[in-house]
Amino acid sequence: MSEERFEPLIVGFLCNWCSYRAADLAGTARIKYAPNVRIIRVMCSGRVDPTFVLKALARGADGVMIAGCHPGECHYLEQNYKTMRRYSMLRHMLGAMGLEPERVRLQWASAAEGVQLAAAIDEMVEQVRKLGPLNWPGIWSEDGGRLEAIEKLAEEHAEAMEVKA
Question: Is the pLDDT of residue 7 over 60?
Answer without folding.
Answer: yes
